[in-house]
Write the structure tokens for this entry.
Amino acid sequence: VGVIQKEVLESIAQGASVVPIEQELRKSIGIYKQAWTIVHNVFAVTKKGKPADFQSLFPVVDSFIESIQRNPDALVCFCLNKSKDDYLLKHAISASVIAARFSIFLGLDASRVRSIAVGALLNDLGKVFIPSNILYKQGRLTDEEFSLVRLHSDKAQKILSACEDFDEEVVLAVAQHHERFNGSGYPNGLKDKQISLAGQISAIADTYDAITSHKLYREARPATDALLLIHAEKDRSFSKDLINQFIHCIGLYPVGTLVALNNGNVGVVFQQNSEKVKTPMVRQIYNLKAKRMLNPLIDVDLSAVSQEEGIRILCHVPVNKFSFNPLSAIA
Ligand SMILES: [Fe+2]
């Protein structure tokens, strides 16, 4: 990943887009499909107890990083709106994309970004050994079942530690993705700085995607709710400083979020303003009073509207309230 130039990393960290989101969203479909095929293979081979081609994951992660270089929001937005796929694989890809995005935002060097993103891709590799009736159980897990599930980070760590493809940071990202800032996590109840930065980034990406994903036993929670839930865990589950950075990275209203505005319109967030997380750029698409789509669509930069205009976000709007995919308005 030596191709990641310092100035590109800086421009991404500052929230600058290199190519328009609609252009990169179209590429996201191919990137996601290819990642799916390779990650599926690694998980399936591991499940059979055979040595997987872990090297094949590096080009996958490089394709994520290159996409984030071109536009920091597109692939995250695509993954977050992809909720009906096989959860284990969808979650692996999304957590990795989010971890890569966040690591780049934090200004980590290219090799660390790559290691943390590969680690996040493999967080739940150990779950392939959990019987599906437990893994996909709709009701509450028994203590015995939960103990079995909790073994998954240890199992993955053992496989990855024995493999020469990975540096220490990959293994730490996986081994520590369920450790929590106040020591309440597993497997080792590590606290505060005992948890590596890789482990902390991996944990935040894993939790954020888990909350925003559709699962058999519950609907996906909106991204805004996920951030508020994670923020409420500051200095309990996660470091306060890191959570504040994460909110600036992903945005309180991530790209792709449907929002209701106080002017009676509904719009889709299509670009972050990383300095002002409450005022992203919104493409207005629907008027609630007239109950009709706007034509043409009207873009508004909420960070730039004057006080007299006073347009602001009232709340996010659940996607199932409308019969269209918000991505179609920005792709
Ligand atoms: Fe996990």
In short: Confidence is low (pLDDT under 50) at residues 1-5. The longest strand covers residues 292-301. Residues 21-47 form the longest helix (27 residues).
